[in-house]
């Protein structure tokens, strides 16, 4: 006998004073479902989850949970009013004998149960709400951005817990690695409709692109049919008026069908423009040490950051990643050692706390009130990379509509706040881009665009992130901050870092016992061919890097072969010339490094 669904939504319609958010929406969540809920920022993902949780009442339609089914919901901004401590909130509703569940979740998610609610940060409140949900273990869990404010260790713990649970769950997340590893089916919100596909997030983008391609083909066919029918109407209607009235009505219906189609929202028109070229050496840190009270943040750390480097900082929350970032860009002084900044640096900063945004200001004032964007004598224009633009037009490039221009910043979703901050940063040129947790709340399409922009950015990038997929796509060097002042530099992104540590699956490692202190580290073990683990990995990676540099050089040389390029586009010519010199330099260094490692490997 088939079991009743855990949750069923039937013919749901919902409007917030304007266009419908959903119309005639129906979906079912079954026992054992592991669903990714995806869609563009502002498409209604969080709203739909609140409808599923019974927190938002639809205008029409029904929401029915199965007999005896408990539904648990973790929202982005939990309400902890009425509770003294985070532990008291997390344990609410549990039997005294079940307190161990909260303690276990608290240990995995790294929150202090004794922390007073009044002094807890937003991240700590979210972790307490997540611990409460994990301890309750309802039949259906609704998780809205559960990985925000979690470090990679806590994300791995949560991932392992969700993998082993029998509870059904629906997840909204910007973390693609998290979704790929956990989900078996996908709910996709697109223009007020929800589609379901029995594939996990791994196959979502291919499925989405196929649907969009089919839509484009059908729209093209419809347009051709309308053109043909319109031509017939002009040429033949007068001769056969009565007999062809039905065909005229059919043409009107075709036009009505086209008008009723809801066009897809485009991607944000984001652009990064590198400013004047910085010096070759951007940052040089030598013997840096930093301590707060009795906590050692860094001890004898050194690194040289070259122009064009893509460097990621990773490690647990509270280990000091943002402190190191601030020291590297001159915002904070080390206790010992020296940090030298290169010449001609132009910094753009994306801060984790979104401190550059004032919640009480409107989007309009947030842009026009920025000294770097203000256009003298023009209250309705902003300066974008040296050119004046109407403030509403610039907001539309970042997918805000005209009605939002005069709305307060606090009314925006997390993803919309991130886009607004990107609009402020990208309005000015830079050659050193500092990104502290930039991926939180951004949708897949915006993340894809950001990764493409960073790949083409001529400047230097320093990045703090817990998003493993983003790290793999962007970082060329990783600084792993491992606690007790230890910070180690590795080549490559997150997966390369794991490989060099001798660890294939980080999510499995967090649930295993830690190795004893006497156990030698994987990277220090010597291979039989004379190479360390790190050197062996680097030797394997270099041929691919050399091949990529050779391909980039070939493209640049083809571009510069245009004899008219210098006269027609002098700025583009100069950028291409500088890039060619840089690529040749990197190629030479890579080839020398490969020869040295190959010689060492041969004994």
Automatic annotation (TrEMBL):
Pinpoint the ABC transporter domain residues. Answer: 7-216, 283-511
Q: Which UniProt keywords apply?
A: ATP-binding, Coiled coil, Nucleotide-binding
Region annotated Disordered sits at 513-536
User: Which regions are flagged for Basic and acidic residues bias?
Assistant: 516-526
InterPro entries assigned to the protein according to its UniProt record, in alphabetical order: AAA+_ATPase, ABC_tran_C, ABC_transporter-like_ATP-bd, ABC_transporter-like_CS, ABCF_ATPase, P-loop_NTPase, Val-tRNA_synth_C_sf
Reaction equation(s) it catalyzes: ATP + H2O = ADP + phosphate + H(+)
Q: Which residues form a coiled coil?
A: 539-569
Q: Say if the entry is tagged with keyword Nucleotide-binding.
A: yes
Q: Which GO terms describe its molecular function?
A: ATP binding; ATP hydrolysis activity; DNA binding
Q: Sorted alphabetically, which Gene3D superfamilies does this protein's record hold?
A: P-loop containing nucleotide triphosphate hydrolases, Valyl-tRNA synthetase, C-terminal domain
The family classification in the record reads: Belongs to the ABC transporter superfamily. ABCF family. Uup subfamily.
Protein name per UniProt: ATP-binding cassette, subfamily F, uup
Origin organism lineage: Bacteria, Pseudomonadati, Pseudomonadota, Alphaproteobacteria, Rhodobacterales
């Amino acid at each position: 006998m088939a079991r009743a669904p855990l949750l069923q939504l039937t013919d749901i319609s919902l409007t917030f004073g304007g266009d419908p958010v959903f119309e005639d929406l129906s979906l079912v969540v079954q026992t054992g479902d592991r669903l990714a809920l995806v869609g563009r920022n502002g498409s209604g993902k969080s709203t739909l989850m609140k409808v599923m949780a019974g927190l938002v009442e639809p205008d029409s339609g029904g929401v029915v949970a199965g007999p005896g089914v408990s539904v648990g919901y973790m929202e982005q901004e939990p309400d902890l009013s009425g509770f003294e401590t985070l532990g008291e909130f997390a344990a609410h509703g549990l039997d005294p004998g079940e307190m161990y569940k909260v303690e276990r979740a608290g240990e995995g998610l790294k929150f202090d149960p004794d922390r007073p609610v009044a002094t807890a940060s937003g991240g700590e409140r979210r972790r307490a709400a997540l611990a409460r949900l994990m301890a309750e273990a309802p039949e259906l869990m609704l998780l809205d951005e559960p990985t925000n404010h979690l470090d990679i260790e806590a994300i791995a713990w949560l991932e392992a817990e969700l993998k082993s649970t029998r509870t059904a769950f629906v997840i909204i997340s910007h973390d693609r690695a998290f979704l790929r590893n956990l989900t078996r089916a996908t709910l996709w919100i697109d223009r007020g409709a929800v589609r379901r596909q029995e594939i996990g997030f791994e196959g979502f983008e291919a499925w989405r692109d196929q649907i969009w391609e089919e839509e484009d083909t059908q729209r093209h066919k419809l347009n051709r049919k309308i053109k043909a029918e319109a031509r017939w109407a002009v040429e033949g209607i007068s001769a056969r008026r009565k007999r062809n009235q039905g065909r005229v009505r059919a043409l009107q219906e075709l036009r009505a069908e086209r008008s009723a189609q809801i066009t897809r929202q485009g991607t944000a028109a984001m652009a990064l423009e590198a400013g004047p070229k910085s010096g070759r050496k951007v940052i040089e840190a030598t013997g840096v040490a930093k301590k707060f009270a009795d906590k050692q943040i860094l001890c004898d750390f050194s690194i040289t950051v070259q122009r064009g480097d893509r460097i990621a900082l990773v490690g647990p929350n509270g280990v000091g990643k943002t402190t190191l970032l601030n020291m590297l860009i001159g915002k904070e002084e080390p206790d010992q050692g020296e940090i030298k900044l290169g010449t001609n640096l132009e910094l753009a900063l994306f801060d984790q706390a979104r401190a550059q945004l004032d919640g009480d200001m409107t989007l309009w004032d947030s842009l026009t009130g920025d000294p770097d964007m203000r256009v003298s004598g023009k209250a309705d224009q902003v300066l974008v990379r040296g050119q004046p633009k109407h403030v509403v037009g610039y907001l539309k490039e970042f997918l805000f509509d005209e009605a939002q221009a005069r709305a307060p910043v606090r009314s925006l979703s997390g993803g919309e706040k991130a886009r607004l901050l990107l609009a402020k940063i990208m309005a000015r040129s830079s050659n050193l881009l500092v990104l502290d947790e930039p991926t939180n709340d951004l949708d897949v399409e915006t993340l894809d665009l950001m990764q493409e922009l960073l790949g083409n950015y001529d400047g230097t990038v320093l990045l703090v992130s817990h998003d493993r997929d983003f790290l793999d796509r962007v970082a060329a060097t990783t600084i792993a901050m491992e606690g007790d002042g230890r910070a180690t530099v590795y080549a490559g992104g997150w997966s390369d870092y794991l490989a060099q540590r001798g660890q294939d699956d980080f999510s499995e490692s967090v649930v295993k016992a830690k190795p004893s202190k006497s156990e030698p580290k994987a990277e220090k073990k010597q291979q039989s061919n004379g190479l360390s683990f790190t050197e062996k990995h680097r030797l394997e990676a270099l041929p691919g890097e050399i091949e990529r540099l050779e391909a980039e050089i070939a493209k640049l040389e083809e571009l510069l072969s245009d004899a008219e390029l210098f006269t027609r586009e002098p700025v583009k010519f100069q950028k291409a010339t500088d890039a060619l010199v840089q690529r040749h330099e990197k190629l030479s260094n890579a080839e020398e490094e490969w020869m040295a490692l190959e010689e060492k490997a041969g004994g």
